[in-house]
Amino acid sequence: MWKLDRPMRHRTLPILLATAACLFVALIANAQSGILAPATVVKPQAYVSLQPVPRGKQFEIALVANIVAGYHVNSHKPTDPYLIPTTVTPELPKGFQLVDTIYPPGMEKRFPFSPDKPLNVYSGSVTLRLKLTAQNDAPLGPTTIPLTLRYQACNDAACLPPVKLPVTAKVDVAAANAKSRLRDPEIFRNSSAR
Amino acid sequence: MRGKRLGTCRSQNWSAVILALVAALIAVSFSGCGGGAQQNLVTSDVSVSFNDPNGNNISLKLPCTNNCPAELKGKVVLVNFWATWCEACKAEIPSLIDFQQKYANKGFTFLGIAMDDDGAKVVQPFVMKTKFDVNGDRMNMNYPIVLGNDSVADKFGGLWAYPTSILLTRDGKIVKRFIGALSQEDLQYIHGIIGS
How far apart are CA B163 and CA B88, in angstroms? Predict the structure, then answer.
């Protein structure tokens, strides 16, 4: 059993206690201010349209972004050039090609801090879609496609710093002639990647 | 003959060196290599001294891009953390311009700390070009704007959201923190500190 020897305990324990105290104070202060940590405002989940994805076939990744109630993020096309748009960027492994990225339209909303100038925003749940092709040399079997979701969130009174959140899409690649089925039809019902 | 050839060769070498130096200087000035072009956007440093939340006296020198003051000492200072991407921050700027106009000659100033990652490159043109509607007049930001980062924010006790404003008395004591845009009540409170 790993045990701290006495001198180590003397040095390490105060540091651990101080760190825990700082974290606790920060949590309490944040809770009191009612403001969320930027990386917790959006909860993203990636879905892949086909199981498996045959080589040579086009498929989709849907990034469903659930935005905490009371907060919004800029849409992909915000009204002001200084505002940071929401984007999703894949880091494609060998054998995959990005065909298109489709962003949903935002909604024009007015906020107490900007009553005269509506902003184009996402709120609630939005789905961002990537159309990709598994090329003929895509590695067979399970693989992951890392995605980066970038956004900048505000509530009705204040804004949070921009965030880059990592999200992972899991893809299972099969031979070109493999049969595949459409997954999550409620998300991909109208998908052209079938 | 040989000597003449050598002489010609030497002068040709020096010409090549001078040309190369001139070309390098031109390239550097246009490329912004080593942050030179960005550094030129910062006109001076502003010193601000205060007692941090732990009671330690902190003295910061922050690069100033616009409306750089000669001195902050002895003034009531409202440190306002903002960014060009922050719509809530930009919405309160007209009221800050109005307040600065009214109370700058009473020993008060805002100190706008811009937290844009791109620094002066994006902040200075924004401040120079953007006009705000202040009681029907189109006005630029009229208070000092300096560049900040997470390290600067930490010295003031950290940031949770933008805008965040921190009120310093004339002797550098932090008396209040405001999260979100300043309300009329907040401005009245600040007015009270100026008068005291």
Answer: 7
Q: Which chain A residues are closer than 8 Å to B92 by Cβ?
A: 113
In a domain, A22, yes or no: no
Structural domain range at position A183: 38-188
Asked whether residue A3 is domain-assigned, the answer is no
CA neighbor of A92 nearest in space, from A153, A144, A166, A155:
A144
Residue A155 is assigned to a structural domain of this protein: yes
| B87 with A111: Cβ contact below 8 A | yes
Q: What is the pLDDT along chain B (196 residues), one digit of tens a residue?
A: 344 444 444 555 666 555 545 544 444 444 443 333 334 567 688 888 887 777 788 888 898 888 888 888 899 999 999 999 999 999 999 999 999 999 999 999 999 999 999 999 999 999 999 999 999 999 999 999 999 999 999 999 889 899 999 999 998 899 999 999 999 999 999 999 998 7
What pTM did the predictor assign? 0.79
- A193's tokens: 């990647």
Residues of chain A neighbouring B87 (CB-CB closer than 8 A): 80, 83, 111, 113-114, 119, 154, 159
- Helix B184-195 vs helix B87-103: crossing angle, to nearest 10: 30
For residue A111, the chain B residues in CB contact (below 8 A) are: 87-88
3 state SS of A129: strand
**Phi and psi (nearest 5°) for A29?**
-60, -45
Q: Do B161 and A83 touch (CB under 8 A)?
A: no
Chain A residue at shortest CA distance from B95 = A113
Report yes or no for ipTM above 0.85: no
Contact B88 A113 (CB under 8 A): yes
> Is A114's CB within 8 Å of B84's CB?
no
Interface test with B, best of A32, A83, A113, A119 (most B CBs within 10 A): A113
Q: How far is A21 from chain B (nearest CA, A)?
A: 15
Count of C-beta atoms within a 10 Å radius of residue B66: 22
Domain count, chain A: 1
Residue B55, Ramachandran bin (φ over 0: left; ψ between -120 and 50: alpha; else beta): left
Residue A92 belongs to domain with CATH number: 2.60.40.1250
B80 and B178 Cβ atoms separated by less than 8 Å: no
The answer to whether position A106 is within a domain reads yes
Q: What is the mean pLDDT of chain A?
A: 87
